[in-house]
Amino acid sequence: MSNKPKLEPHNSNLGKAVYRGRFAPSPTGPLHFGSLVSALASYLDAKQNQGDWIIRIEDVDGTRCKASFSEQIIETLNSYQLSSDEPIKVQSNNTQTYEQHLLILKEQTLVFPCNCTRQSLSEYNGNHPYECKSTLSKTHSWRLKASNDVYQYEDTIQGSLKFIDDLKSTSPILKRKDDYFSYQLAVVIDDHQQNITDLVRGADLIETTAQQLYLYDLFKWTPPSICHIPLITNTLGEKISKQNHAKPIENGHLPTLLRALHYLGIDLNSPPSISEALSLAVKEWKPSKLYRIKHLPLEEQDLHLI
Ligand SMILES: [Zn+2]
Fold first, then answer.
1. What whole-number distance in Å separates Cα of residue 90 and Cα of residue 25?
2. pLDDT for residue 306
3. Domain boundaries defined on the chain
4. What PANTHER family does its record include (predicted)?
5. Partners of 300 in beta bridges
């Protein structure tokens, strides 16, 4: 997909644009159907653009992630022949880099220490007020200062997205009180370090986009192209997630793969194998078929998958 000029990979002097996409699951449970759909979308987009597709394990939240789930997720992805083109990186090995980048923001006073609790922020709908009123102690989090910047970008699937008040109304945590870095900071640094040129991810992440684009600006980096596929929802209209007890999917199960492709607008006529299905799907993938769709409720025949 090319909604803007491709980045030149930083480690290449070939003088030619190379697509690099990724799938970055959090190992808080086994892979479920919604994650398979996301993994497939990023894979198909990368392969249709003759690009590399990389798996990264987003285990930055050490309180929720388990190494055993990482292994299980990778095994399931491999069983669907979704294999990383490069050795798989794990965020928990990269905390020193996150610390260095937080320091850059500290030096420019773009972040501030904060001791606010969820309870004290409840009167602000969980957002952080412009000024921090907490009393500091030794343990505190680091938040990004609010900004009046407005971000707009062209999302190949969701159309033109404009974020007017996103940065004004809140100050996201970049490092938590318990010393874990936030997803927001880690994902931007990792995508930049791995020269990711294109993000294809679930529509639930649209709301984090402005903050990420802002971080790219603060570090003076060029952001990747970003597009958001529809979120697969359960009968209550909620995202299928580990939080609402989504079932693990069966490994290497062709019918499950075909149903996942169906939600990406690809209906294949009984391919004989997973590898055949994938190579057909790479040709058939057309993000514009999903234009402006943010949610796709699971069809009745697929309710057993969650
Ligand atoms: Zn505060």
1. 10
2. 87
3. 20-108+187-305
4. GLUTAMATE--TRNA LIGASE, GLUTAMYL-Q TRNA(ASP) SYNTHETASE
5. none
